[in-house]
Amino acid sequence: MQERNISIQQIEGRGIPVRGNDIDTDQIIPARFMKRVTFDGLGEFAFYDHRYDEDGNATKKHPLNDPRFRDGAILLVNSNFGCGSSREHAPQALARFGIRAVIGESFAEIFAGNCTAMGIPAIALPHHDIEQIMQTVETNPATPIQIYVRDEVVSVGEHRYHFDLSPAYRNALLSGAWDSTSVMLNNLEEIKATATRLPYTTNFEPAGVQ
Predict the structure, then answer these.
(1) Taking the model in full, what pTM does it have?
(2) Domain 11-175 adopts which CATH fold?
(3) Domain regions of the chain by residue span
(4) I need a surface site. Which of 19, 127, 168, 203 has the fewest CB within 10 A?
(5) Per residue in 140-168, pLDDT tens?
(6) Tens digit of each residue's pLDDT (9 = 90 or more) over 27-52
(7) Angstrom distance (rounded) from CA 155 to CA 22
């Protein structure tokens, strides 16, 4: 089995500024869409109530509907983003919409952890820096944004911003430990060896794994 390269060291993309403090997970993904059996297709429901009218048309004024930000992959937010329910569906919806990182003033702790567990860095910067980045992107949506996880630097156009990522989150992203499934698959022989030594397992063979 070929080992997957799951280390996340650099992310590059355009920004999508979503202004407002205390945007909770129910706004990110309304609870009525959490009845789906899998996370597949969840991206179309991201910020649903802020984007769609009563007829299900994406006619409301929202950055995710704005054609200027259509190719954006880095969400720009304000303070206490992802507060409220700890639902994993919130970062799942963002990821399936195409979001690869979130940069904001502050995040709910569980939301930031859920993002990291999906390989989505949740990066906090001071209010002044976030405001400057948002204004830059709103003025020129094509402005490239680069995130360097190891160096803890965000580059936006000609400006560079330093951030402090939790050592646990930083190490998980750099080592690839954020992707627990791939970590297990990359160490399948060791898992098999351990399982065969356990008194309560017999004929251990993970389903669907050759």
Answers:
(1) 0.83
(2) Aconitase; domain 4 (3.20.19)
(3) 11-175
(4) 203
(5) 999 999 999 999 999 999 999 999 999 99
(6) 999 988 887 666 778 889 999 999 99
(7) 26
